[in-house]
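Slides due. Your pick:
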Amino acid sequence: MEKIADRPYWSARFDKRGDLEGDIAGLVDAITAEKVEHLFVFAHGWNNNEDGAAALTREMFTQMAQAAASVNLTRAGFLGVFWPSIWFPEPPADAAPAVALATQEGAPGQADAAVSGAAIAASLAPSFDPAQQQVVSELGSLIDDGLAAVAAGGVPDAVQRANVERFHALLQTILSDALLQTILSDPAAATPWDSCEVALLEARDPVQAYQALAEEMGSAPAGNPDFGMGDIFGPIWNGAKSALRVASYFEMKSRAGTVARNGLGPLLAALHEKAPRLRAHLAGHSFGARLVAFSLSGIASAAASPVASLTLIQGAFSHWAFADDSMPYGQAGPLVDFRDRVHGPVLSTFSEHDWAVGIWYPKASFLVGDLTTAMPDAAPKWGGMGSDGAQWVPGPGEPTPLAASGTGYGLQPAQFYRFDSNDVIDDTSQSAFSGAHSDIQHPEVTWLPVCAAAGL
């Protein structure tokens, strides 16, 4: 057993099917043997390789341990949740300023246009099985060959179209998760708030779909506005890059849900059965926020749940996830029936400097065919959790400014709190594409789950 700040620390490593590396019973026994009263759980998000995820998790827990000690939560323990998220490359350094400006202006597709298909494939491949890695490599080659053909000229449109159609068919094959395949075969089985990207992935005419995607995302190559003007397949192949990002997003969402339901949820239930007095405080970043939130659906009932609080840090999933069907757009979120699995407060951070959730996320839903941004007095239809926090849920109507560590917020059970983090999560220099999305290692942020645990 490892330690962080002299408190016990365990790792739970899941594969993409939600199977735990090692024995669940053994992990449960190890945790309960330490007589932990407050177990802080953290799940990393997107673009985290194994080393990066481990470093982030340790830093977040180190800060939580210091905060817990300050309020005498002496019987605390820490559980890091590791899962196979997907890496997507940042644009080259020389293109980063133009990409950052374009992203802020609503053209995040320039981040994709600035990198090669080979670079995208190299980043994505480690997150897939060996057979799928070959497909990912071919997807990258099709993009680069298609763009090279545009530049050289003389390639018949019919050949380009056939290659785009092959790209689209191959794209389907790397999305292997069982839940995803169910959604693709029956899109009506999922709520729109949890599967909006499926409209692109099941498009019958990928040439038209990728052209529309390029137009919506602004995928014209950064720094070369004339490229593709004489050949429609220039924008289409850049749209294919954005389609590959959409697919990787959808795969991460699906994996996070699978790990949540099949892995973390049952693990939490087993902990509660073994140690009924243990209180689990779940926190997650980005798609890790989605993972910890959807773990509630893997717990059979409120009585079987040890979850005492839930903290969603720049969550990369719909802000309607917990809403009931009285919400403005008339369709409940996928987690509304699992709100009672959390016996304490639910906290969510949001920041306008998070471009990944605030700009990319709503644009990824454009092929649903409804570009409605908002009804009067309602939040945006396709908004992400990290853009304005959980919507249409019990709790204060106004957001709470994120304050210094040690601040008491008067948190109450079964209430949802939105934390305005614009003044803290604000370092947009971290990524030309996602801005401050990953700027979360702050005492103000890590104080939130501790504050919930202490009932402050």
